[in-house]
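Limitations

Structures in this collection are predictions, not experimental determinations, and the ligand pose is part of the prediction. Treat each record accordingly. The example that follows, with 6-phosphogluconic acid as the small molecule, is included so readers can see exactly what is and is not provided: the inputs are given verbatim, and the output is the predicted complex.
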Amino acid sequence: MRTLAVFSDKVALARGATDYVLNLARAAIEQRGEFSIALAGGSTPKDVYALLAAESANAEFARWKVFFGDERCVPPDHPDSNFKMASEAWLSRVNVPSANVFRMAGEKNDLAAVAAEYEAMIRSSVASEKSGTPRFDLVLLGIGDDGHTASIFPDVVERCRGPELVVAVAPEGKPQKRLTLTYAALNAARAIAFLVSGAAKRPVLSRILKEGPASGFPSAQVNPRDGGVTFLVDTASL
Ligand code: 6PG
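Predicted complex:
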């Protein structure tokens, strides 16, 4: 099922997305005792993470398990690090147990080993149920101007269609290699939420909403088997 929620501007989008995450977390904790979330990188989610940092009274962060949808292969203190962005804006300010924050070690040399280790962490920390594939309660994703999501760029889509849950990729024109969740991991999720803001996203978002997977964009190929996809967008991006 696909849902579209439209917000008047970036500020309203951040508030709406934060409330959406908090509601899903409460339901997951009520039903299964914990909440597993994979974070988006880039700039749009930063305002959501900053709002989450002020929600300790409304969220049982001690029961949250925080993963990353993708990471740039840089040290965790590098300005491009998604981990650094999420930690500074949110994770360092709330009581998510450090053992429950699962960082992709992009700074290491053997990226195939890092991807395999991260997959093993997911498999040991996120419930699989009958499908055998771990099911994140929520995966937050962005959409790039070229229609990529996580680090599934157009030139590495095929590499992300395999059985692995995590792969290392070298997208063309990017300054760093990347680690990314694959479609196998994304399409097992209970809920996917795309956070989209700004006029630059309008051409891609309109085609994704109109054509779906037929648009051919990497982000349009995210279709959880028995999960929902929600587009949380501002009016500028529509
Ligand atoms: C990353 C992200 C990437 C991002 C999109 C949108 O590591 O850069 O995971 O997929 O979500 O590029 O980025 P903005 O939110 O900055 O537009």
